[in-house]
Structure formats: structure tokens, C-alpha cells
Amino acid sequence: MARLLSVNVGLPRDIAWQGRTVHTGVWKTPVSGPRRVRRLNIDGDGQGDTAGHGGEQRAVFVYQDESYRHWQEHLGRSNLVHGQFGENFTVEGLADTNVCIGDRYRIGSALFEVTQPRVTCYRLGIRMDEPDMPALLVRHGRPGFYFRVIEEGDVEAGDEITQVASGPESMSVFEINALLYLPPHPRDRLERALRIPALSRGWNRSFAALLEQQRASRIAAGNAGLGPAASPPPAWRGFRPFRVSHKIAESGNVTSLILEPTDGHRAAAALPGQFVVVRLGPSAAQTITRSYSLSDAACYRISIKREAHGAASLYIADGLRIGDVVEVGAPRGSFTLRQDARPVVLLSAGIGVTPVLAMLHALAAEGTMRDVWWLHGARNGREHAFAAEACELLAGLARHHSHVCFSAPDPADRPGADFDSAGHLDQRLLQGLNVPRDGDYYLCEPAAFMSDLTASLAALTEAVRSRASAAYKLAAQGRNQAWAELRAQEKEAYKARVEKSWRREPSSMPRVTAELRRGLPDNVVIVDESITASLDLARAFDYRGFGDYFGGRGGGIGQGLAGAIGVKVAMPDRPVVAISGDGSAMYSIQALWTAAHHKLAIVFVVLANREYRILKHNVDVWRQNFEAGTQHPYQNMDLSGPALDFVHLAEGMGVEGIRVEKADDIATAVANAVAANKPCLVEIAIEGKR
Ligand SMILES: Cc1cc2nc3c(=O)[nH]c(=O)nc-3n(C[C@H](O)[C@H](O)[C@H](O)COP(=O)(O)OP(=O)(O)OC[C@H]3O[C@@H](n4cnc5c(N)ncnc54)[C@H](O)[C@@H]3O)c2cc1C
Fold it and tell me: Candidates 223, 289, 318, 450: which one to mutate for ligand 1, based on the most atoms within 8 Å of Cβ?
């Protein structure tokens, strides 16, 4: 008899993680006594990321006690407590392999239906302090599952769990999970999954998409990362530091690196054929980001071909040392080895060998009984990387065949020993070798890595277009129309706002930015530190070309006037206009002197409302959050007493200044300032926070 061991709830909270704030409801704590389960939630429970969790079809997350034992052993941990996996119900029984989508269970006075496996996100990695956890759940086939609440009621730890109905098609949570995340995706099973009415809408859509892809293309080979099949979610987000533990010269032009994580956690297991994105470089300011297939997925080995003039490959060959730290993204890509009984054909040329070599390693490690064909092309013996390694792996296989072609053999290369034939791998050669036509082919040649991005994107667009079904096109058309309508509504609303504020005095922000646009030439470069006026500025100007706009990304202020100096130095032929709030302008006012000193024709526009408007906004938000009633007063947020005077400040720095009080005069003032072709300051009076 299955039993409810623990009811766990928790409301979302903000936690600090890797220098940012993550809003998450993954922390759940056991509660005693009866708890009400409602259609969308258990009382006292909530989700942080409602795009990924919660809602009617993911109202209650269930995880099994037996999986706890599995993880305790696998992770070597004894400190796992109920709720650890973010689950609402910790249960005894109800294994993922037994429970089927659509099964119904009565617990206490509530009735539940199984809707989908849990989709694990990186937050579980944070909660468990195991960054690889999301990928491990998929790989170990222990995702847990969600309940939909059919009848609301009370539940309590200790309640018996009684199955009252079985789902149609008898597809277990384990099977459904593997069907989505792990290749192959057999068509008949996809069709069965789509016949289960209880399956959640999201999963239904994913299976329908897979089926559609299969209908459109019967081929499942291709460039790593561009394959059509779904791959497991990345084991971690962003980059993790890895140390170069070994650096190996594989041939005249290929260097391998073995990478080990420095953060004390194990690297996640990768699938053979996957690639990683690596960020490296001689200094933090000179980083290069490139993709590399793992040439042995078991030990995070990447192998890089030296390219003439290649920034990363030359740095790796000549600059990078053992012990250096590089940043590595989680393994990705669905060009991976499928479980199958058919012969495997691994076909590669040049550095394209890397993903298929990882596959050969995996086949050797599992002692496959499949026929394995190793077909490889290289220029000559000096450039034939991994010759001995491939030979050794093949020798350990029960059934193997191999053929190596050299396109330009050296005189020292021995036919029959170093290579099997001169020339290229082509259709005729494969026919002559009797390579099975019904084999499972994995093909990778360097062009797949190096092909032109523009051409690839154009081809991708075309492929998406040609494969889109009528229903898909209709839905896309609907979405586009909805966006266009929303945009039109927004434009109308903004227009009304501008009209309403047009005649206000001092001038409103929409009016000021509209007047600036009117007075400034089309090729103007805007350096924006207008903070709360930024949105109006963005609506007034139509930034299109490279370098039309510069602005800060952080929340720090003070870079605007000074930044304009650098922009003008970089773009001496374009008019540069810095637009700053008066508070920000005080931080780097000495930029005016620098502009005068170096005769840099920059127009400094200071929007003067004599207040720290952004702080007032922030206070408003906090007051709203805490329902603190009135929005007033704003203490110590006005720039009053002594009176600021930017025109005289500018004069003191050798820059001519003018103050504009009336909106009607703004366009002429800035046009004149640009025409003067020397540093000028235009202070514009704008309204403060009402
Ligand atoms: C999924 C995936 C997996 C990959 N796996 C591997 C792998 O396992 N091993 C591997 O080696 N690569 C792999 N690549 C390719 C790799 O990411 C890099 O693109 C490659 O190493 C070249 O990078 P680079 O910085 O050395 O060259 P870049 O500096 O990016 O130059 C790109 C090309 O332009 C040429 N070039 C640059 N400057 C000049 C110039 N002034 N004159 C003439 N030519 C010039 C270079 O010779 C080079 O061929 C993979 C790519 C992808 C997308």
C-alpha cells in the first residue's frame, strides 16, 4: 500500500546565487496536521517560476522515498530531508516506473490525476547544492511527477494512497520522461503518448512537435547542436570554471585539453557527441568564446585544430598552459549516440572526428555487440589525429570495420598500415566497402563546424518555412497579429500621453525628447544617461545603425558626460550628444573641461528637474510593495539649496552654456549647439515628479 509520508509547502523567496537574485519556491518544509489541497495549490504553498511550475496541471509535485534512498547513496549524502526535491508530497511507493500518466489516486478526501513528469530546472541544483542535479534526474530516470487536483480536499502525512483508475495506454512517468529527453523517439510511442487525455498540454505539444519533425525529415544526423531531436536540459546555466589538467599534442595540428571543474563539484555526465561552449583568453578583457565537441565525453576532453589566423585555436596551442582556468558551459546538443540494434556507422573527416570519437569511446565502454564502422578521412599521417586511439578502441569491439582515407599522403605514409586508400570518402567508396545502407549513420566533417553562419541561418529560415504546417503558420500569424495590435495600442496610448503633457510647464519628458529629436540631425549619436527619461528618449529616436546609441547597462550613474568623450574620440565625424539628468551630470562634470581642452565638439544636454527622480520612483515601488499608503513626502531627494547652475559650471570649465526654459525653444537651441561645432552645454528645465 502506498502512503503519504510528508506534506511539504513553502512560499517563493529571493535567494542570492552566483551574484544574482533568484526567485524560487523550491524550498518546501514538512507540515503537520491536515492541509487543504485546492485546484491550483496546497494552502501555504506557492511557486516562484510559474512558467515552469504550478498551474492546474502541475498543482502538486510528488517525489518518492525510494528515490531519496537512491540519491543518498549516489551522492553520498545523509542530510536529505523531506521537501528537499521541492516536492509537495513525499510518498512511499508510487515509483516513476509504475505510475502511469492518467492514473488517478485518492489521498485523504482529495482526488488526483497524474499529468506529467517533473521538468527539473537549475533551481533544484541550487537547493541541493548539486549543480548537476537537473541532468542527473533525467539520466537516472527519477524525475517524480505532477498531480492535477480532480477533487479538492484535505490530506495529511500518514494518509493511505489508493489507486482508483488507470491511465489509458499505460505509459509510465519514467517512459514518458525518457521519450521526450532521450533519443530515440519512436513514432509509435509518440502517437501513444498523444492519445492520453490527461497528459499536460506542454508535454502534449512537445510530443506533437517531435512527431511533426519526424514526418518532415527521416534523417537524424547532422551538426552537433543543430540536430532536430530534443536533448536533456543543460546540467548548469552559464559558465563554470574548469582547470586545464592535461594538454596533449595529438598530431601536427591538433591539441587536446582535459578539463576538470575547479568548484569542487563533479562535472555533469555528458552524452557522447555533445559539445561545450568554452570561454578563454589571455585576460578577462580579451576573452574568446568557441564551441568544441567533447572528444571523450567521459573525461571532458576537447581537441582543437590549429587554424591559420584562428584566434582561439592559436591561443590554445601557444598561450594556454596546464593549470590555467577556462570557463565552460554545460554539454549541449542532440547529435548523440542513439540506443539501437542496427550497425553504427561513424563517418568523419579532419577535426570532425571529435564527436564520433566520443561515440566510439562510449560504444567501447559499454562493450557493444553492434557492428561498428569507423570511416575517416585525413590529409596525411601528420594530420591524422587519434589514429592509435581509434585503432585501440576498435580492437576492443566484438564487430568492427574501419577504413581511413588520406587525401594527400606524404611519401612516408605507408598504404595498408597508415591508411587504407588515397582520396576522399565518397559514395562510391562506401558502396565498394559494403557499408550497410540500413545502418545508424553519424556524420561529421569540419565544414559542419566552420560553415558560414549567414548561410546556415538563411537555410534554417528556409527549412522552418518549408516544414511549417498550415496549423503552425496560422498560429504564428495569429501571434504576429496580436503583437502588431499590442504595438499599435501602445503607440496610441503613448501618443495620447504626449498630447496630454504637451503644454505643461516646466516641459514634460515626452515633450522634451520629441523636441530634441526635432532639433538634432539624423546621423546624431546619443549617449544616454537620462535615467527616467530613457524610455521617452527611446520612443523619440529611431536607433537603427551601429553606434547610434550608447548607454549604461548597470544601475550606476556618472558615466554619461565622460562616456561622450570616448564616443566622440571614436566617432569624430558624427555629431555626439550626451543627454544626462542633472543628478548624474554632477558626477563627472570635469568631462566638460576635457571636451574644451581637446576641442571635442560634443553637445551636453542636462535635463534639469532639480531632483533625484529615479530614487523617488524606487521609493514609490517600495511603498506600493509594502502598502505604505501615501507616496509623499520624498525626503532628501531634491537637489535644492544651493541652487545648481550648469550654465555657469560649464563656463567655468571653458564650455559655452545656455539654459532653455520653454519647450518651444529646445529644438533651435540644440540645433544651434550642434552647428557651433564646439563643446556646448544646453540645460533644459523639465518638470519634476508630481
Ligand atoms: C558544435 C561545434 C563543435 C565544434 N567542435 C570543434 C572541435 O571539436 N574541434 C575544433 O577544432 N573545432 C571545433 N569547432 C569549431 C570551433 O568552434 C572554432 O570555430 C574553430 O576552432 C576556429 O576558431 P578560431 O578562434 O581558431 O578561429 P577564428 O579566429 O574564429 O577564425 C575562423 C576562421 O577564419 C580564418 N581566419 C581568421 N582570420 C583570418 C585572416 N586574417 N585571414 C584568413 N583567414 C582568417 C581562420 O583560419 C579560421 O579558419 C566546433 C564548432 C561547433 C559549432
Answer: 450
